[in-house]
Design a protein that fits this description.
The complex is a heterodimer. Chain A is of the alpha+beta class. Chain A is built from 10 helices and 21 strands. Chain A has helices at residues 43-51, 93-103, 108-122, 137-150, 167-186, 200-206, 224-229, 234-239, 273-276, 304-307, and strands at residues 4-12, 18-27, 32-36, 58-63, 66-67, 78-81, 155-159, 192-197, 209-214, 217-222, 246-255, 258-263, 268-270, 286-291, 296-298, 313-323, 327-334, 337-344, 355-361, 367-370, 376-378. A 6-stranded mixed β-sheet of chain A has the order 6-7-8-3-9-10, with helices on both faces. In chain A, a hairpin with a 2-residue loop joins β17 and β18. Chain A is elongated, with a radius of gyration of 25 Å. The mean pLDDT of chain A is 91. Chain B is mostly helical. Chain B has 15 helices and no strands. The longest helix of chain B has 35 residues, at 33-67. Chain B starts with 10 loop residues before the first helix and ends in a 9-residue tail after the last helix. Residues 1-18 of chain B have low confidence and may be disordered. The chains are: A alpha+beta, B mainly alpha. Chains A and B meet through β6, α2 and α4 of A and α10 and α11 of B.
Chain lengths: 379, 312
């Protein structure tokens, strides 16, 4: 298995559009790396450049200590699973899986062995004689996985492989892919996997590390937990997490040795001392103030009167209530600002829209970003 | 954050929705009689039009077949009869014996077959190159081909004749095959078909290690069987029935194709004057191999591309 290194990789299309702006990235041997980002962020282009399906305009791509810039896809030691399966429609499942092996001139017995092993792992043995047109979407995707597996590549590439599946099948296939990665590791094949998705749930659950991209640039590369809890910039903070982090313009103020974050509407939140120390240079300046919805909680109506005067509690006007069963998303107005709170469902509290309620803002989890560079000041 | 997905517990909602749909269907009023009459009359108009169009298409063939079994006077009798008074099957035997039909059919078949084979190979390769390979001049190449499409065939006769004369290929089947071995229609038609092959299939094959010729042969062509059968049939029929160009190129009697053969024996130099029943019978004999070929190809042409193996 192999390490994949991207050095200052650029992609400029013939019309002059620069899709990828000098990406530097090292994907370790056996690592499950996920490329995530909004549409048009160049995540698929980057994957296709690694695969050799797209030329690179500048930079260097190394797979297993070998520069593969000028190598055709077949010589890069990769396998790819496509979003639309890309199974050869006129061939049976067996023939689909055997096609690549036949090109490598592998002997018939070995081909049979590999296909039977992969089919058993993916539970598609009964489908080996079927044609792709006779199978469901989930079955086709498993065949596409099998076709990638039998080639025993150094690097597996996945281009949004679950996008065409329904919600339930997406979950089960996602688990299958994670299982496959663990199984291959257990068998001694330290499979490097690169997975492209726009779905952050897939990214968070599958990736050892996640590379967040925007407009052809890397925004942050880190573990899922670090991305969530310590976003490097405002883009990552807003992109990772569902519902999205609340991001509001605010000013850093100091009164009586205490540092506050003050919104334009006058609402003031006391910053804990360990966070306040990091923004001493920003007193009187504007910043982006970020707080995740789960860190804004509803103050129980019975205690509202008593707590109204306490720190970090503000009166909000609830515009929409989305009930998810175990929890609720409250879309509220805080003066002119719109915020989202995520609260556990409590049958004793009846929350309706068009009501005003006090909310507690847990400032120990707040994030602050520079207003110009949008880089994190406080996490 | 429009790109996030949330798995919502839709189970109960879907069941309720299905029940509501069922109720709606049950409550739907019966289709009124006027609507039924309207659809029946539109169906009748459609079928009448198609039957009429079909009759126009099939009439020349039926007329040829019935004419081959009539006497010369009966063909021009007034009023015209579709069915002959007496079926003269003997005309076919006499016609077949009066000229070397077997040789002419064989000549036409050989020339048409090899021309079609070469046309299919080079059209497929050219169409593959301009649809699946990335190179700068591919659009220019395509427009050059399309420009050739607009050139009248007759304009090319003299330069082609001179070229073949210089190559010493006049009055030979090889010359005939070579001069027809490139088809602008073939390139245009296969280009349109190959554009419909999903690019991810080609990319998957490239990753699987297949070369471009292998991809064309093992991945692209099997998915375009219907188009290939159509192109084969059209090219074969065109070359089999070809008259003008072979009549300029071929001068030896034993190298004649069927169309020029029929003309020479029954119209220009024939011993029978204008014996229309024999001309009709000769034409029927000439058309038979094409009909058999069409029957063989028909199933493939109609089958089309059932499933392209990718999810759109």
């Amino acid at each position: 298995m192999a390490e994949v290194i991207l050095r200052q990789v650029e992609k400029v299309y013939p019309n002059g559009f620069k899709a990828v702006h000098g990406i530097d990235l090292t994907i370790h041997e056996g690592e499950f790396m996920v490329f995530v980002g909004p549409s048009g962020c160049a995540k698929s282009t980057t994957l296709r450049m690694i695969a050799g399906l797209e030329d690179i305009s500048d930079g260097q791509i190394m797979i297993g200590n070998k520069c593969v810039n000028n190598l055709p896809p077949k010589d890069r030691g990769i396998s790819m699973v496509f979003q639309n399966y890309a199974l050869y429609p006129h061939m049976s499942v067996y023939e689909n899986m055997a096609f690549g092996l036949k090109q490598q001139k592998i002997n018939k017995r070995e081909i049979e062995r590999r296909i039977s092993d992969a089919a058993e792992t993916l539970e598609i043995t009964h489908l080996l004689a079927s044609k792709p047109g006779e199978m469901s979407g989930g079955q086709r995707q498993r065949v596409a996985l099998g076709r990638a597996m039998v080639r025993k590549p150094d690097v597996f590439l996945f281009d949004e492989p679950l996008s065409n599946l329904d919600a339930k099948l997406r979950v089960s296939t996602r688990i299958s892919i994670a299982q496959l990665h663990h199984d291959l590791k257990a068998e001694g094949q330290n499979a490097t996997m690169i997975y492209v998705t726009h779905d952050q749930v897939e990214a968070m659950t599958l990736g050892d590390r996640i590379c967040v991209l925007d407009q052809g640039k890397i925004m942050q590369v880190d573990t899922p937990m670090n991305l969530y809890h310590s976003p490097a910039n405002k883009f990552v903070a807003g992109f990772i997490g569902s519902p999205a982090m609340n991001l509001l313009r605010a000013t850093v103020n100091q009164e009586n040795d205490a540092t506050y974050i003050q919104l334009d509407n006058g609402a003031k939140f006391l910053l804990p001392s360990e966070k306040a120390e990091k923004v001493t240079g920003k007193i009187g300046q504007q910043v982006w103030f970020g707080l995740r919805p789960e860190h804004i909680s509803l103050v129980a109506p019975s205690t509202e009167a008593a707590t109204a005067q306490e720190q970090n509690i503000e009166l909000t006007y609830i515009k929409v209530v989305e009930s998810m069963g175990n929890e609720m998303y409250l879309y509220c107005a805080l003066g002119q600002e719109q915020i989202i709170a995520r609260c556990h469902f409590d049958p004793k509290i009846n929350i309706q829209h068009s009501e005003s309620h006090y909310m507690h803002f847990d400032m120990s989890h707040c994030h602050l970003f520079d207003i110009d560079t949008e880089m994190a000041l406080v996490n | 954050m429009s790109t996030q997905s949330i798995d919502l517990p839709l189970g109960n909602y879907q069941v309720q929705q299905q029940q509501a749909d069922k109720k709606q269907k049950l409550a739907k009023p019966a289709t009124p009689v006027s609507t039924l009459l309207k659809s029946a009359s539109s169906l009748l108009v459609k079928h009448s039009f198609l039957s009429f169009a079909g009759l126009i298409m099939v009439f020349p063939f039926v007329w040829m077949l019935s004419g081959s079994m009539k006497s010369n006077d009966e063909i021009f009798s007034n009023p015209l009869n579709i069915f002959p008074e007496q079926f003269r099957w003997q005309t076919f035997v006499e016609t077949f014996e009066s000229a070397p039909f077997g040789l002419y059919i064989m000549n036409s078949f050989t020339v048409a077959f090899f021309t079609t084979l070469i046309v299919m190979i080079n059209s497929a390769m050219f169409a593959y190159a301009i649809t699946q390979l990335k190179f700068k001049s591919r659009t220019v190449l395509y427009f050059i081909v399309m420009a050739c499409y607009m050139l009248p065939g007759a304009v090319t006769y003299i330069p082609s004749y001179i070229t073949l004369a210089n190559l010493g290929l006049l009055d030979s089947h090889t010359g005939l095959i070579i001069s027809n071995a490139a088809s602008v229609f073939g390139v245009f038609y296969l280009r349109q078909v190959f554009l419909k092959v999903h690019p991810s299939l080609i990319e998957a094959a490239r990753i699987d290690g297949a070369g471009e010729v292998k991809i064309l042969w093992a991945i692209v062509l099997p998915q375009c069987k219907a188009a290939l059968a159509t192109l084969f049939l059209i090219t074969f029929i065109t070359n089999y029935n070809s008259y003008m160009w072979p009549s300029l190129l071929i001068t030896s009697q034993d190298l004649n194709l069927i169309a020029t053969g029929i003309r020479q024996f029954f119209i220009a130099e024939g011993n029978y004057g204008l014996n229309w029943s024999q001309i009709m019978a000769a034409s029927t004999i000439a058309v038979m191999p094409l009909l058999i070929l069409f029957i063989i190809c028909q199933k493939t042409i109609l089958s089309g591309i059932a499933d392209n193996g990718v999810k759109e």
